[in-house]
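FORM 12-B: Structure-to-Sequence Request
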């Protein structure tokens, strides 16, 4: 049997949670479950406000809009990311400015970020790759020193910590994704967390067609007004109820992911042609949303390994190719974007199967096959 890259961590409580919403015969779209899920996320992260969305990408679009970024503005982002990070500024006509990454966490390199700041820069938007915190404390200092916003694209890193502080709580705001390969999932979904009340109100309005309303719009609306053009970017009550059930399992899921990652780390440690994703030091707590190793010889050996594992029934993937090289950007960007570490690492990385329920036998089997390949 083939080993998939990921499997969703779910149980009977998830089924029950969705079933209760169905059986209520009401409020499938917006209902109390949404606020409950938002409160639960706020409590878990110890943030003041949380707004859910129907995806991480729409959450990012809403953030760019709520901060009022536009054509004269620049946002510094990594190219070593999922494309949504780079699209976000472009949704509102702003420019993504790509900065390089460092090899310890695969996150934005603070030194390179400093070089990319111009008079147009409004924000720095790092990601926490595969659940490993980036050097977010350094990026925060840079943002503060230069009077810039720090927006965490924490899509992959719910529950990760740097120095005991959770990712998503360092910046002015942060986005998390609940897509089905993330730490918890609602199928599709996302949220923004922040301490900023004004931002919170703007986000809620934008996700609901730019509407202000008292009471429940569908059953008992009062004082409706449409103040600006918005979208329907709302999460449904099914998803929120599923999210509530999922977040109840988050500690267990993170513990299992860490145990699985440790097993890989121990099994692969004697192979000097690869590098495992160890945290740079004990301040970093990864949630291992992905388990990505580096093949130090680069692209040819990496691609050969990928093919070898595929033939053995083991699914792997490249996360990420540098997004600035995709054709969608060719009319927007300067031609000479130099990101040497991004280029080097993107030719070395290969993501192996890791999920809470992957068996130890399967991990040992994958380790054996990698050893056989080398
Ligand atoms: C770093 C990063 N940013 C943004 C997103 C977009 O989230 P979603 O897929 O929920 O729209 C993802 C999800 O894959 C991601 O990994």
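FORM 12-B RESPONSE
SEQUENCE OUT:
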């Amino acid at each position: 049997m083939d080993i998939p890259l990921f499997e969703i961590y779910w149980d009977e409580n998830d089924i029950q949670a969705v079933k209760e919403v169905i059986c209520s015969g009401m409020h499938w779209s917006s209902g109390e479950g949404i606020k409950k899920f938002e409160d639960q996320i706020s409590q878990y992260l110890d943030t003041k406000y949380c707004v859910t969305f129907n995806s991480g990408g729409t959450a990012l679009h809403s953030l760019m809009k709520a901060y009022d970024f536009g054509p004269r503005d620049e946002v510094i982002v990594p190219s070593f990311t999922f494309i949504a990070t780079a699209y976000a500024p472009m949704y509102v006509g702003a420019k993504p400015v790509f900065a390089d990454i460092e090899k310890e966490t695969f996150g934005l390199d603070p030194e390179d970020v400093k070089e990319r700041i111009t008079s147009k820069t409004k924000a720095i938007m790092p990601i926490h790759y595969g659940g490993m915190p980036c050097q977010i404390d350094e990026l925060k200092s840079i943002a503060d020193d230069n009077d810039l916003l720090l927006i965490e694209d924490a899509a992959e890193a719910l529950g990760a910590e740097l120095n005991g502080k959770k990712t998503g709580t360092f910046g002015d705001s942060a986005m998390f994704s609940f897509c089905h390969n993330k730490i918890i999932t609602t199928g599709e979904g996302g949220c923004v967390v922040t301490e900023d009340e004004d931002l919170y109100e703007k986000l809620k309005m934008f996700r609901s067609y730019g509407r202000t309303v008292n009471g429940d719009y569908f059953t008992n609306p009062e004082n409706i007004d449409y103040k600006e053009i918005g979208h329907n970017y709302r999460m449904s009550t099914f998803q929120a109820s599923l999210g509530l059930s999922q977040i109840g399992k988050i500690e267990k899921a993170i513990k299992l992911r860490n145990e699985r990652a440790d097993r890989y780390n121990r099994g692969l440690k004697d192979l000097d042609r690869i590098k495992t994703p160890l945290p740079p030091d004990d301040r970093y707590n990864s949630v291992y949303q992905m388990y990505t190793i580096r093949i130090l010889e680069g692209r040819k050996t990496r691609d050969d390994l990928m093919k070898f594992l595929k033939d053995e029934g083991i699914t792997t993937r490249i996360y990420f190719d540098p997004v600035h090289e995709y054709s969608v950007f060719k009319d927007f960007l300067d031609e000479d974007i130099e990101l040497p570490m991004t280029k080097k690492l993107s030719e070395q990385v290969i993501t192996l199967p890791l999920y809470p329920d992957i068996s130890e036998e399967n991990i040992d089997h994958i380790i054996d096959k990698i050893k056989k390949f080398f």
